[in-house]
Write a structure and sequence with these properties.
4 domains; Insulinase family protein; alpha+beta; zinc; Peptidase_M16; 6-stranded mixed beta sheet; 7-stranded mixed beta sheet; metalloendopeptidase activity; Pept_M16_Zn_BS; Cytochrome Bc1 Complex, Chain A, domain 1; 33 helices; 983 residues
Length: 983
């Protein structure tokens, strides 16, 4: 469920999926639920439920037990989305089989009885599907789901695809060669996933679910079990669990459901189960005898305290009454979350705290509390959070509190109804198999809203008090403390803090005084329109006001119920010197959370609750941005919210302190994993250590005093051009009036152009050997990066787009060789960055994680790929397999508001944007093998590259020759040298 503000962030997926469904072609009211005496049997999906069925879905079952659900949906046009879920996950594994469910998922994608090894990926690329986004799979503790989105679906393509999927599931190629190849890939995935966060997560899982399968079973498995996996053992696991009677297929898309049903029957009816069905193992129940407290030490992770109130998981029929009662539970938790968020924003001992309800992997029904303390004040933070929860357990909420949360959630459900007609096929198919996983159903958005509204009788102080007490009662309670460094008697202190009685925090309750738009400062009289001209694409108008504000506006029904609002103002990063380091990372939170006029962060949360109002602040190279997705009813107030922010900014030290405390809570001088090291340093280093991209560090505290922050940002909020974009479900004349009354009412703004040196972007000098980055994670974890300078600006925009195709080709070759054949890496990738606002600073870079001893091989392979691309053209088929997915993506985007909004931003100051946007498809799709060869020869030049490696601290640096890094004498002449990077 889409949320619009932090207080709405904790609607748990397990709960929401019970109600979030698909749009109806005919609406069904909640009162239409069948009675127990109904003579018409319900389809398998709704057998144990009385919720109104969604008639858009057609359900069926094959004689072999395979179940399916199919619906017609023409959003996006031409696409068919397929989800195949098998009821097998890590919880079905025996100890020696740890990781087998995930291993078989990988092997199934490699090949089967019908498709040679690796060929399914190429077939789907030719059909316009991108591997990793349009084709993918996921294994969880309770299921494995295969996903396919065919952007250009026709009968032949869907027939071929379902044939491939049927073979993948029933007869994957689990033989010696593919098992050995994919073993290395799975090992690489496991290695890349090692991080401080994953280690803490493993500790939490084993501790919370002690004595249960969920506590012992990691989805990825163990190094020992993966190394020992044989084709015979994997085949035995597959035959035991991969059965048609454990499989569900959901298809939604732009094709006749009768045809899709015939294809399912044609390709899946021949699948026969091997032997009798194996009963599901007992997932166990929370063990009240297991230890109640645990302390772990993880230097690179934030201090955190987690509480779990654990109850046995039991199946509940997905009835209307059950969902209404559960909605009361959700509102009760949201009341607590709002109190916790307000306390955190006003200087509590915790940076963040939240409560959530979840049915975790059909193993427990649990209420989880997560606390991030300020610094090391974990005991005080735990006490404060427990006190807020205790007050909710002891005293019923006011009806005003309840109504506020109820209306907020109702607004979110109403938004889903408004956008039901444009809900995508992928979302519909995904929701259905997700509901199967948690043993629940889906309903249409309209029915969902009606069920929610009919739950109003549950929203009384007494009933919510009962919900709260039940949610914080349990058969077992656990508390886990994660520390950055060991502390004396930490376990005993945690045990004492958990058991100590707490006084209810009556001061955490929210006031009944409403904050409304009238609470904001008044703006001057509306401005006047001085010009109005068509842009020439999808009906967009370019409107100028007498104060210099410009508006790009289009009203349409492309997304019913949605209005996209984006405001660009000032000059973004270009208003800072490259030599400055002003902690720009803290600005989005610091500015948004500081409030407006006399309305602080708490007041903003109150004002926005239950409405489609947002507040995203961003920093682009050439502008600052305020953006939100609103509604026809709320967008005028969204505009006022943004305009008054610029006119009457509030300056509050609390958000700055909170941002700094959040950084320090998780900061480690040396990153805790290879991926963390890349994330912290790469963007900055590839821009020649430009201070405007500098990574966050504790030394930034000096830049985040209130006086310095205000001095830095007040003039930037008050100056520079303003461009407002409104795209969506609006009346154009009303929208013009709304802008005139808000941004058009602002005083004319001074526009001081940044100095030319601020617009320049730079790529680092070539290096003679890779720069060394360090991490403190496992010694087996390493990474390698190589990058070449390209260009910037709009004069060679066609070339920049063709460089994106070159990067896609490099990524595909790396996947084929480095992952699929060698198994040296799991996520090798190449990307092209081309800044349009600067004539320089662009680059094409390649990165991957891998073992330290494979680093020289990576550089050698990249040297070979670069040389091959420069020396001869790629085949037309290889290029087409990258072009076709882009063609389908552009076809889908052609009439998208979001697409044109992104392409035309800045048009009011640079009209060339329209020409650049209209040439995008041509520039990308007309790329030829000769173009790719010319680009590779021009840019992938030996001696011009910059490279880096990431190793665990103290690990020896592998020997890498100049030939392997594609660097030669030119790099030495440039003065490049290896050096550790730090900030």
């Amino acid at each position: 469920m889409t949320t619009n503000f932090a207080a709405r962030r904790l609607l748990s997926a397990a709960l929401a999926l019970a109600l979030i469904g698909s749009p109806l072609t005919a609406q069904v009211s909640a009162s239409a639920a069948p009675s127990a005496a109904s003579a018409t049997p319900r389809p398998w999906f709704y057998e144990q439920s009385d919720v109104p069925m969604d008639p858009a879905w057609h359900f069926g079952e094959l004689p072999n037990g395979l179940r399916y659900a199919i619906r017609r949906n023409d959003v996006p046009a031409g696409q068919v989305s397929v989800r195949v879920r098998v009821d097998v996950g890590s919880l079905m594994e025996e100890p020696a089989e740890a990781g087998f469910a995930h291993f078989i998922e990988h092997l199934s994608f490699r090949g089967s009885r019908d498709v040679p090894d690796g060929e399914s990926k190429r077939i789907w690329q030719r059909l316009g599907a991108t591997f990793g986004s349009d084709t993918n799979a996921q294994t969880t503790p309770t299921g494995t789901t295969y996903a396919l989105d065919l952007p250009r679906a026709n009968e032949a393509g869907i027939d071929e695809s379902l044939k491939i999927l049927a073979g993948m599931l029933s007869q994957p190629n689990i033989a010696k060669a593919p098992v050995e190849a994919e073993r290395a890939v799975v090992m690489a995935e496991r290695r890349e996933g090692l991080s401080p966060q994953s280690r803490v997560g493993d500790e939490i899982r084993s501790f919370y679910y002690a004595g249960q399968r969920l506590g012992k079973h990691s989805t990825i498995g163990t190094e020992a079990t993966l190394a020992a996996a044989t084709p015979q053992a994997l085949n035995a696991f597959h035959d035991r669990w991969y059965r048609p009677d454990r499989t569900v297929i959901a298809i939604s898309g732009a094709m006749d459901p009768a045809l899709l049903e015939a294809k399912i029957r044609a390709h899946f009816s021949g699948w026969k189960a091997q032997g009798p069905a194996t009963p599901l193992p007992d997932f166990g129940k929370p063990d009240p005898r297991a230890p109640a407290t645990k302390v772990v030490v993880e230097p690179s992770a934030p201090y955190t305290v987690g509480l779990a109130y654990l109850r046995p998981w039991t199946f509940n029929a997905d009835t209307v009454a059950f969902n209404q009662a559960r909605l009361a539970d959700m509102v009760a938790l949201e009341l607590i979350n709002r109190r916790l968020e307000v306390a955190a924003s006003q200087g509590a001992s915790f940076l963040q705290a939240s409560v959530a309800l979840d049915n975790s992997s059909r193993s427990v029904n649990a209420t989880y509390v997560t606390i991030v303390p300020v610094g090391n004040e974990w005991e005080k933070a735990l006490k404060e959070v427990r006190a807020i929860v205790e007050d909710a357990r002891k005293t019923a909420p006011s009806q005003t509190d309840i109504d506020r949360e109820f209306s907020g959630m109702q607004g979110e459900y109403a938004a889903l109804v408004a956008s039901a007609d444009i809900e995508g096929s992928a979302r519909q198919a995904e929701d259905l198999v997700s509901a199967v996983d948690i043993r629940e159903t889906v309903v249409s958005p309209a029915t969902q809203l009606e069920i929610y509204r009919s739950a109003r009788s549950y929203m009384t102080p007494d009933k919510l008090l009962a919900s709260t007490r039940r949610l914080f009662s349990a058969s077992a309670v656990r508390a886990l403390l994660s520390l950055k460094t060991a502390q004396p008697n930490a376990l005993a202190r945690l045990t004492t803090a958990l058991r100590a009685p707490v006084q209810a925090a009556t001061n955490a309750r929210l006031g009944d005084k409403a904050v409304t738009m009238a609470s904001l400062p008044a703006l001057p009289p509306p401005g006047k329109v001085v010009s109005r001209t068509p842009v020439g694409i999808i009906g967009i108008q370019n409107i100028a006001f007498d104060n210099g504000v410009r508006l790009l506006l289009v009203g349409n029904k492309a997304e019913p119920g949605k209005v996209h609002v984006k405001v660009r103002f000032g000059h973004g990063r270009e208003s800072f010197s490259p030599k400055q380091d002003d902690a720009l990372w803290a600005a989005p939170f610091g500015i948004a959370a500081s409030g407006i006029g006399d309305v602080d962060q708490r007041g903003l949360a109150e004002l926005m609750n239950g409405r489609r109002l947002g507040f995203d602040f961003g920093i682009d190279d050439d502008a600052f941005t305020l953006s939100a997705t609103s509604s026809p009813e709320d967008y005028a107030d969204q505009l006022r919210l943004f305009a008054t922010k610029l006119a009457f900014p509030r300056w509050d030290e609390a958000p700055l302190k909170r941002a700094m405390a959040a950084l320090e809570a998780g900061y480690d001088p040396v990153p805790g994993s290879a991926s963390d090291a890349i994330e912290r340093n790469l963007d900055w280093m590839l821009r020649d250590r430009d201070g405007r991209y500098s990574p966050a560090a504790p030394s930034d505290r000096a830049a985040l005093t209130l006086d310095k922050f205000k001095a830095l940002w007040a003039p930037r909020l008050a100056s520079g051009p303003i461009e407002v974009q409104i795209y969506g479900d609006v009346d154009t004349e009303a929208a013009i009036q709304a802008v005139a009354a808000t941004f058009g009412a602002l005083p004319k703004r001074e526009d001081l152009q940044p100095p030319p040196e601020n617009r320049a972007m730079h790529f680092p000098r070539p290096v003679s050997s890779p720069v060394l980055l360090s991490h403190t994670g496992p010694s087996e974890q390493a990474a390698a990066i190589i990058a070449w300078p390209t260009g910037g600006g709009t004069a060679r925009i066609r070339e920049s787009r063709q460089l994106e195709m070159l990067a896609r080709l490099i990524s595909d070759r790396l996947f084929e060789k480095l992952r699929s054949i060698d198994g040296a890496a799991y996520t090798p990738s190449a990307s092209s960055i081309w800044p349009e606002t600067s004539d320089s600073g662009g680059y094409l870079f390649v990165q991957t994680q891998l073992k330290p001893d494979r680093i020289p091989y990576f550089f050698q392979l990249m040297n070979e790929i670069a040389a091959d691309l420069a020396s001869k053209p790629v085949t037309q088929d290889e290029l087409d397999r990258q072009v076709e997915p882009i063609r389908q993506l552009l076809n889908r985007a052609a009439y998208s508001n979001a697409f044109w909004m992104s392409q035309l931003e800045g048009y009011t100051t640079d009209p060339r944007k329209l020409g650049l946007a209209t040439s995008l498809a041509r520039d990308l799709l007309d790329t030829t093998p000769a173009d790719i060869q010319a680009l590779a020869a021009r840019y992938l030049v030996p001696g011009q590259s910059w490279s880096a490696i990431v190793l665990a601290r103290g690990m020896p640096v592998p020997l890498i020759t100049k030939q392997q890094t594609a660097s030669g004498p030119a790099a030495q002449a440039a003065g490049g040298s290896p050096a550790p990077a730090s900030h």
